[in-house]
Amino acid sequence: MKQITFHLDFISPYAYLAFERLPQALQGLSYAVEYRPVLFAGFLKHYGQLGPAEIGPKRDWTYRQVLWQAHSHGIAMQMPAAHPFNPLALLRLAVACGANRHVCETLLRHVWRGGGDPLDATRLADLQAALAPGRDPAGEEVKVELKLNTEQAVAEGIFGVPTLTVDGRHFWGADALPMLRAYLDGDPWFAAGGAWDELAKLPGLQRPR
Question: pTM above the 0.90 mark?
Answer without folding.
Answer: yes
